[in-house]
Amino acid sequence: ETGVTQSPTHLIKTRGQQVTLRCSSQSGHNTVSWYQQALGQGPQFIFQYYREEENGRGNFPPRFSGLQFPNYSSELNVNALELDDSALYLCASSRGGSEADTQYFGPGTRLTVL
Amino acid sequence: KQEVTQIPAALSVPEGENLVLNCSFTDSAIYNLQWFRQDPGKGLTSLLLIQSSQREQTSGRLNASLDKSSGRSTLYIAASQPGDSATYLCAVSPGGYNKLIFGAGTRLAVHP
User: Fold this and answer.
1) What's the pLDDT at B41?
2) I need a surface site. Which of A103, B12, B56, B62 has the fewest CB within 10 A?
3) SS3 for A29?
4) Which three-class secondary structure string do you get for A58-79?
């Protein structure tokens, strides 16, 4: 069973640019959640996709957007990058969108905004 | 608004010590609580998950307890080893849908 994978591993962008991060969910999982982890902090929930629909969103501005594809992989898009967007971005997949479904985390993408 | 706090923020101990890491949360209406391990710059590994109806869970040298009414959980690590060095994160699931609310973590260093 393949685990959750994320690409790229590292990324460097400049302020104002746009970035797309990718996540492949674990086999059999139809839900992907995205988290942002700033240095020295715990992860913060960005949003969740369940069967290609957004299923909940944290306190992030609209320039953070996402997609989920029919194979349940997902993308996180961030427009108009700001310095504070520098963080580790984690995705997690689960069998469903309910609180009963365990989330399995990928290794993360480290984004640096200069 | 649910807030999760972890104490201490950092801990350095000699090998062999028994440790207690603390987690508190402000809203007792949780579905479950999880403890994760995170190695530097890496993703999260789930260690223990306690359902809201449970009091504790054990896995090897790790034991986690949950007191939902007081909004507290502890992670007990027995006979610590250098390989236990990592950041330990506590997270609660508030229910409704599948999101986690994390504390800032406890950074543990176990030296030989």
Assistant:
1) 83
2) B12
3) coil
4) CCCCCCEEEEECCCCCEEEEEC
Task: Quick: pLDDT tens for A8-59.
Answer: 999 999 999 999 999 999 989 999 999 999 999 999 999 999 999 998 899 9
Please tell me the total number of residues recorded for chain B in this structure: 112
| Residue in A10, A55, A99, A109 to test binding to B, most B beta-carbons within 10 Å | A99
d(CA B7, CA B9): 5
| SS3 readout for B41-79 | CCCEEEEEEEECCCCEEEECCEEEEEECCCCEEEEEECC
- State residue A102's pLDDT score: 83
- pLDDT, mean of residues B47-62: 94
Q: Quick check: B106 and B6 in contact, CB under 8 A? A: yes
User: Are A40 and B104 in contact (CB < 8 Å)?
Assistant: yes
Cβ atoms of residues A48 and A29 within 8 Å: no
Long-range contacts of B59-63 (CB under 8 A, 24+ apart): B62/B35
Instruction: Determine the residue among B50, B99, B102, B107 to mutate to test chain A binding: the one whose Cβ has the most chain A Cβ atoms within 10 Å.
Output: B99
Q: What is the pLDDT of residue A1?
A: 56
Q: Is B93's Cβ below 8 Å from some Cβ in A?
A: yes
Q: How far apart are CA B87 and CA B45, in angstroms?
A: 11
